[in-house]
Amino acid sequence: MLRLYFLISLMGLVKSDTDETCPSFTKLSFHSAVVGTGLNVRLMLYTKRNETCAQVINSTDLGNLNVTKKTTFIIHGFRPTGSPPVWMENLVKGLLNVQEMNVVVVDWNRGATTVIYTHAFNKTRKVALILKEFIDQMLAKGASLDNIYMVGVSLGAHISGFVGEMYNGQLGRITGLDPAGPLFNGRPPQDRLDAGDAQFVDVIHSDTDALGYKEPLGNIDFYPNGGLDQPGCPKTIFGGVSKYFKCDHQMSVRLYLASLIKNCAITAYPCDSYRDYRNGKCVSCGTPQMMSCPLLGYYADKWKDYLRDRDPPMMKAFVDTAENEPFCIYHYFVDIVSWNKNVRRGVITIKLKDKNGNITESKIDHEPAAFHKYHQVSLLARFNQDLDKVAAISLLFSTGSVIGPKYKLRVLRMKLRSLTHPERPQLCRYDLVLVENVETFFQPILCPKLQV
């Protein structure tokens, strides 16, 4: 029986295990990373017609690609273990859910898989040349550069930039997800992603102190949590070696994925520095004609026309995110007027509670606030839940002192106002005495409306 099966398989009547019904992303082993891989780029097309089963295409066969529709290229980065990106499938599905388009996964795992980063780095321009050859054929069939969108991760962000430069910045859009920093830091614009590589370039920086690029690269550069340590990621190597090295870097992808789900929008605030953002100095976008502040992720291009009129057409934007999906943070101002005779310095923790018992907390401790007599201090509070109707509030004041007397903060007036929903009524409370490190609960009342 085995001999018969062998003879039949030799005649091609039985499919081997290597035949793919649905082509999938190249999966390699760590052994491949050690010995190195030669470059081989595969382009895999997904559309609404074949959302879960890719079609392999190339510059001589565009397959089912509809050149009249938007085409989004997804370009991964360095793969030191050879494994497929864990986020790829979700990113393909997310893009196809928000808009009918062509999604082309650029699989250059044979080339990106190596333990020696410079080997992958040296192949980036070759990948870009292959993509240009493919796009040239798209254009010959009637496609428009306006409809070409590139989403590049790490090294893939710079590959996108190289392609864009070949078309003199006429690609519709490039999104760089934590563009790689090593070997790119300090290089001139032609040797990395740059704001001139497409009609609109947006960048999410999530690991600027390690694997990512620190300086602005696009028309709008988002720095979630300052672009450094991301909530939910280990702070030290003891939190898990692989997760420690990659978590902050890959958070840019997770945040972009969250933007494709419409249950919350991650709103960022144009600002010169993360410190100014945390201190509440950048809560106005300065554009009353705009519907909202810039949105991190897929819908960042709503600011395209506004940024085009700026000189230079570039902007940095900051936002804090929550530890868990969908990562949205809801911003409030806590205005405190104190009447202590002497200056009190410390931090405030505020909790909000609704009538259903839901509680959300914000610890405003990035730097101590100075409370002067009869002077209003406005603190930017960030909550990971959006409570529609606040029934109770608690405040806790701390100087950070472990020994010595407990200080008091005498509050003449506290006001809570939502930045996320400015139409909501503002809540007040008067004549409070906060004893250091003692949580004080109270029911707020509606603030009096200003007389016009």
From TrEMBL:
Ca(2+) binds at R192, D194, D197. It is found in: Cell membrane; Secreted. It is a peripheral membrane protein. CDD domains: Pancreat_lipase_like (cd00707). Its main location: membrane. It catalyses: 1-hexadecanoyl-2-(9Z-octadecenoyl)-sn-glycero-3-phosphate + H2O = 2-(9Z-octadecenoyl)-sn-glycero-3-phosphate + hexadecanoate + H(+). GO terms for molecular function: carboxylic ester hydrolase activity; heparin binding; metal ion binding; phospholipase activity. Keywords: Calcium, Cell membrane, Disulfide bond, Glycoprotein, Hydrolase, Lipid degradation, Lipid metabolism, Membrane, Metal-binding, Secreted, Signal. One of its GO terms (biological process) is phosphatidic acid biosynthetic process. Residues 37-327 form the Lipase domain. Pfam families: Lipase (PF00151). SUPFAM superfamilies: alpha/beta-Hydrolases. Residues 1-16 form the signal peptide. GO terms for cellular component: extracellular space; plasma membrane. It comes from the Eukaryota. The active site is at S154, D178, H249. Interacts with TTMP/C3orf52. Hydrolyzes specifically phosphatidic acid (PA) to produce 2-acyl lysophosphatidic acid (LPA; a potent bioactive lipid mediator) and fatty acid. Does not hydrolyze other phospholipids, like phosphatidylserine (PS), phosphatidylcholine (PC) and phosphatidylethanolamine (PE) or triacylglycerol (TG). Belongs to the AB hydrolase superfamily. Lipase family. This is Lipase member H. It comes from Nannospalax galili. The gene is Liph.
